[in-house]
Amino acid sequence: MTAIGISQPAPGAAVGQRVRPARRRGPGLRLARLYLVSRRVLTCLLVLAAAGIALRIALHWLPRTGVAARQLPLTIEAGAAAAIGVTTRSPFGEPEDTAGPWVRWLRLAVSLALAGAAFGALAAGAAGQHLADGTLGLLRDLGGFTGLALLTAALIGGGLAWIGPLAYVAVTLPALDGPWATPWTWAARPPHDRGAAICAGLVFASGLALLTARGARAPDSALETALRVYPSFRARTDYGYPAVCRAVCRPRPSSFRNSRNCRRRKLSRPE
Amino acid sequence: MTAASTPAVPTRAWHLARPGRLLRLELRRNPMLWMVPLLAALFWYGVYRPCLANPPLWVLRAATIQSHALLIFAPLLAGVAAWTGSREGRRHTVDLVSITALPRWAAQLAAWAATAAWAEAVYLGGTAVVYGITAHQATWGGPLWWPIAVGAVGVAAACAVGYAAGALLPGRFTAPLAAVLVFVALGAGAIWIEHNGSYAQIWPLNVQGPFPDDSYGVFYPFLPDLAIAQLMLLGGVMAAALGALGLASARGGRWLRGLAAWLTVAGVAAAAAAIGLAGTARVEAHGIVIPALHDAASDRPVSYTPVCARSAVPVCLQPAYAAMLPDVTATLGPVLDEITGVPGAPVRVTQVAVTSMQAHEPGNGIAFGGPVLSGHPVTLLLPLSGLTLAGEGNTTAAQFSQQLRTQDAAILDALVGLASPVGPQSGSSGAVIVPADLSPGAAAQHAIVSAMAKVAGLELGEDQIGRQSAGQRGTGPPPGPQAGSPSSASRLAAAERFAALPAAARHAWLVTHLAALRAGRVTLSEIP
Fold first, then answer.
1. Does A198 touch chain B (CB under 8 A)?
2. Which chain A residues touch B83 with a CB distance below 8 Å?
């Protein structure tokens, strides 16, 4: 079988039915639309809107002072950032990057746009209510959380990007009512703390830069990295050797081929 | 090799081996395994450090473990469990795995069990480390298991809720939303408990309602009523979530779906019953009591041999507080030295649980009574409950001593007859009500207290006199007598005069006139 004649109509096709040529759109626009669909950006926008509503409801019931007045808004902000982080997950993985240079600019633009949308939704939710850290604090905290989410997406995968901001919130909780002064706990610092703003900005910028350059890490490659980092674990876990890793890491690295476990298996395997 | 040559496996053994093998596989491939380092780091940061920053009282550390571990762990566990539960949905392999011989529900339960097992390993391992260190440091008592049990069931329940969410609604947003919702639910509990003192007690981070952590489980057994209700709630939520998984599974047969339905209904009923029981909770002197769950044996005091300091007036503390004995003795010493030998002065100081307690409506706040002079010979019953102990949080020994100095003032108040049993902070506002114009007898009492406090090195303002346990939690700054009242200047002058007397003269005057002073029959002009 050859490719000759593949562009011809199928023999069973109705005679006289005209094949409508595909309407040509701008390739950039189509790429952007497909990118947004593949990232579930519309769902993300709905989640951000829900976060704004949740913030409004929470601020209505929250006391004006105390730890709870800061803890719950921070959690909602972290949730919004987590939603931005998980949108970076690509269903295609690394092959997508070979499609062309535009994907990385799309990643940058969409991440920035979603961060802006999150700030707008949360600021609208807090309008007319008493937000403990004010709009400036909201901008700083949301920026920092989003940066953490993007960093996590670039390092361990888009699907698990929520771990970064939510683990950071858990770390920040003791700092809310403690004498912490380090600017790296920016969410627990006053809104006009310059060091905290710089730290949050640095995290946001580095997250955005890393995600733009590399994209969200595909989950399989994350596992491969983990197994590369822990060769002893890899050697121990075979029989062992996880099936998913067999698919991902083939051919097996020399360290495994030479490992004692591997040699033992060869020896014990009947020819 | 053909299928005909496959060795026959006994049916029963095969049935028993399948779930175990599946669980083993899930344990090895579970995403929670990769979260163990993060969870361990969070436990160290958010639980271990705060625990060891507290004095080595079992109750303090157990309460910290329950509240901190659940708050830090539960959201992340729910998220990771949701990620695990949505695995087949995300990879579009639901149809593929549904045709396996094992019921889908069993496979899901194995995945949940593996997820929960890794989480429990971190939680219980961390708890074992904290308890091991506490066993070396604590001077009295033994480990409390009820708060640990609540935390352990809470961990499993968070995994169950997350897993069910992931399995029923698979998607990329499920895991973060599950984590955030659990976070928000735990945070909202704090607000709920602010507004409602009864049903909100069921909140899983709540150990003993408004009681400070060192005010229960020492002199009386830890009351497990609330912990039992919390276990019912968390167990019910877990059962309902796991049962809902079975209901949603298409395969498994009628009996399996019936079992899932039964589990769901039982879980919902247990959770509803727990909330209903929490509605009947009442705040009593030694913890939260739920009548339907209360064991009368828990009301008997715990026996112990106090540790005492060898001083002119012996100071005896509960052995769990032995490390604070030098601070307490040094702080109370000057005042006790000043009043030793005076009729009605204490000949011994004994630490007690709580002398009196008043709950604030709507139930989210209590005020403890201060020291009380009681018995014959007179003993000073000194409660330390409600004070922030040295080492608790960031409290230094100096700050602890500063709080104890307010007890000194209360001792002087009690000696001259100014103190009341519950303390002046009782009342919904927490404000001390001191009349602007004191009676002649009360003015003399105030003047004597001021003078003796000055001699003992206490810097008491007018507002701290006649106010019992002023430095304790839950009390606001009280208004003192008005500075411009007619008797203020004469009171101060009398106090200055009395403080300027030689110690022997002061002592002799007190020995002779204390009874009259307590009865309010001494006026300012009669003070030498």
1. no
2. 159-160
Contact residues on chain A for B183, CB-CB shorter than 8 A: 75, 78-79, 166, 169
CA distance to partner chain A, nearest, from residue B172 (Å): 6
Residue B309 backbone dihedrals phi, psi, to 5 degrees: -95, 140
Task: Tell me which H or E stretch contains B509.
Answer: helix B503-519
Query: Which residues of chain B from 71 to 130 reach within 8 Å of chain A, CB to CB?
Result: 71-72, 75-76, 79-80, 83, 90
Would you say A189 and A178 are in contact if contact means Cβ atoms under 8 Å apart? Answer: no
| pLDDT on residue B117 | 97
| Cα within 13 Å of Cα(B47), Cβ side | 31
Instruction: Report which secondary-structure segment, H or E, holds B397.
Output: helix B397-416
- pLDDT tens for B322-381 read 888 988 888 888 888 888 888 888 888 888 887 666 666 544 567 777 777 887 788 888
Mean pLDDT of chain A: 77
Does any CB of chain A come closer than 8 Å to the CB of residue B262? no
Tell me, yes or no, if A181 comes closer than 8 A to chain B by beta carbon.
Answer: no
pLDDT at B232 over 90: yes
| pTM of the model as a whole | 0.80
CA–CA separation, B517 vs B410, rounded Å? 16
Residue A60: CB atoms within 10 Å: 10
> Which DSSP helix (H) or strand (E) runs through B134?
helix B104-137
User: Which residue in the set B50, B79, B179 is minimally distant from A174, CB to CB?
Assistant: B50
For B140, the token pair is: 């009295």
Nearest CA in chain A to B393: A178
Angstrom distances, CA of residue B528 to CA of A93, B345, B410, B446, B523:
92, 21, 23, 15, 11
Q: Is the dihedral of CA B255, B161, B190, B289 positive or negative?
A: positive
**Residue B38 to residue A167, Cβ atoms within 8 A:** yes
Work out the number of other CB atoms within 10 angstroms of the CB of residue A136. Answer: 13
The amino acid at residue B398 is A
Q: How do residues B46-80 score in pLDDT, each as one tens digit?
A: 999 989 988 899 999 999 999 999 999 999 999 99
Contact B172 A158 (CB under 8 A): yes
- Can you read off the two tokens belonging to residue B525? 């002009």
Contact check, Cβ <8 Å, B28/A237: yes
ipTM, 2 dp: 0.76
